[in-house]
Amino acid sequence: MKLLQKVCRVKFAWAHLCCFNKEKRTMIQRIQSVYLLIVTGLLIAAMCLPVGQFIASDGVTAFVFKPLGVTLASDAFQSTWGLFGILFLSTVVAFCTIFLFRNRMLQVRMTVFNSILLIGYYAAFFVFMFMLKDDLEAMSFQLGWALCLPAISIVLNYLSFRAIYRDEVMVKAADSFRLRK
């Protein structure tokens, strides 16, 4: 019987501690913050990795296409800084959105803006790809796996949008319940 009382006291103390910590927990424990942190990491990786390569008409020469530009065979550099700029801006927006937890509606707008930026990244990518393909007289273009990272980020932005909006609905419901009492 004494063992049961001790277990009950420990459970009660743990439950009380958990309830106390729920009010003061850091915002990184919210799932949308984790999603946005993963988006930040994916976009940093997308900035550094090649998104594809142009295969020259001889079938041997390959020009690596990174978000900053394409290195040509004569050690010249064809810049595509616009792609890098879009990814960098999107990374900064995703990282800053994590810390806007006190203003959930602004957080929702920022995740939508980030997704629109990433869709714009794909549009700019295809424009640069077709322009560079003509300039380099390349026979074909081989896509790299890093090109899918912004698409994964768009999906994670959508998941964080849903989680943030769910929190906002829950807070509004609690406020209306509190006002009825």
Structural class based on helices, strands and sheet pairing: alpha+beta
User: How many beta-strand elements?
Assistant: 5
Gross morphology is: rod-shaped
Radius of gyration: 24 Å
Low-confidence stretches: 10-28
Helix and strand sequence:
HHEEEEHHEH
Q: Provide the spatial order of strands within the biggest beta sheet.
A: 4-3-2-1-5
Distance between the termini: 41 Å
Question: Could you report the average pLDDT, rounded to the nearest whole number?
Answer: 83
- Biggest β-sheet, characterized? 5 strands, antiparallel
The fraction of residues in strands falls at 5-15%
In words, what does this structure look like?
The protein is α+β, with helices and mostly antiparallel strands and 181 residues long. It has five helices and five strands, in the order ααββββααβα. The protein has helices spanning 2-24, 31-48, 81-98, 104-136, 149-180; strands spanning 52-56, 62-66, 69-71, 77-79, 138-143. It has a five-stranded antiparallel beta sheet with strand order 4-3-2-1-5, with helices on one face. A hairpin with a 5-residue loop joins strand 1 (52-56) and strand 2 (62-66). Helix 3 (81-98) runs antiparallel to helix 4 (104-136). The longest helix has 33 residues, at 104-136. It is rod-shaped, with a radius of gyration of 24 Å. Mean pLDDT is 83; it is low at 10-28.
